[in-house]
Specification:
This protein has 452 residues and is of the alpha/beta class. The protein has eleven helices and 21 strands. Bound molecules: thymidine-5'-diphosphate (TYD) and magnesium ion (MG).
Amino acid sequence: MKKSKTSFFCQHCGYMSPKWLGKCPSCNGWNCFAEELVVESGSDSRAEMRFDGRPQPIEEIPAEEGARITTGITEIDRVLGGGIVGGSAILIGGEPGIGKSTLLLQMMHNLATKGLKVLYVSGEESASQIKLRGRRLGANAKELLVLVEVSLERILEQIKIIKPAIVVIDSIQTVYSAELMSAPGSVGQVREASSRLILNAKKLGLPLFLIGHVTKDGSIAGPKVLEHMVDTVLYFEGDSGHAYRIIRGMKNRFGPTNEIGVFEMQEKGLQEVANPSSFFLAERPQNAAGSVVVPSLEGTRPILVEIQALVSATNLGMPRRTAIGVDHNRVSLLVAVLDKICGLHLSGSDIFLNVAGGVNVEEPAVDLGIVAAMASSFLDRPIDSQTVVLGEVGLTGEVRAISQMEIRIREAARLGFNRCIIPKSNISQLVSRQKMSIIAISSLKEMLDNLF
Ligand code: TYD
Ligand code: MG
């Protein structure tokens, strides 16, 4: 007989406590503990995996990376670091309706047409719903098998029988194990189901995709708990209101992180956007105050984004500060620097900042762009539309060096920009001759003099 006991789990982050708590000490969430049955380890499935319990010199361990399987979708292959690694577990997170099932079905169709046997397990949609979606996407490969199932034990059994080359679990939150009493989607179930699926996949050397829903506030019974169990975590950014979708690699044991893939949701599923810079700049207004372009770096790829600011006199006692796509704290800091060092008094103004297209740019290299956009709107003087700015701003108004200057400038030149304002300390790193005029500055004042 298996010994069983219960514990209380935070439904947001998976923190375990022997007694009920009102506030989670790990994620600070309130009222998020639920009692769940814990299967005593030792007697459970974890014993299925047998390791050779002997230390060995690292030099003698055979390094077998194995061939990567390319998905046929370049944007995804890049985020994965060149394709899917055998035996790896990949978590795809995102809000409901963002396109997770669509992307996976497209990918699996591609792999199945190459002759790989794919098992697509769905606990969310009926087989005919998947068929209808597949028809829109043109996913009709013979080797693409669809299984509608939520029981963990039966899924594992089917994997054993069918022996697929790749498995997709469309939403790990729907899978449940009969051995646990707790409801499907609870932390205990999600953890148990994924750990057994992952162990099974590792044993068979089979790549496993887990789809996980993430709610608006970023909390999920699932993905947060899962992040440390899987090899790769990809998240969908953007919202379902916009046509484009960004997939970002948050963690990758087999490749780079922070790499992004850009897609557009169309009639026939997700289409790759090969040239994101021109995509994000497509609707840029000409000669409008408050708009500036910044070459931001996402992973290893430079992407030009437009930062927009609207600074208007406030009639509130406490002016409003809204920042979408850029770090809120960073903006407050830059407003203070502009006020104190440059004498632009924004304290009586509402400030709205937005990165056009809804991209998130969190790196400090966009500081200068934020300042330029705010100053431009405040002064009501447009910035030359052929100019890009980039650099980090310090608290005394100094402009600091940023990384990877060369490739950022090259991307801007490729898109037809002819003037670039950069930190002075970056100049020495530029090796090749640039196709645009470079203005090196060391303080914010200098930048404002050059722009207006
Ligand atoms: P879906 O993949 O079901 O989202 P998730 O699995 O992340 O919940 O995506 C559903 C959305 O995508 C839905 O709003 C309709 C849209 N869509 C298209 O615009 N074109 C298409 O070809 C498909 C299949 C879906
Ligand atoms: Mg779905």
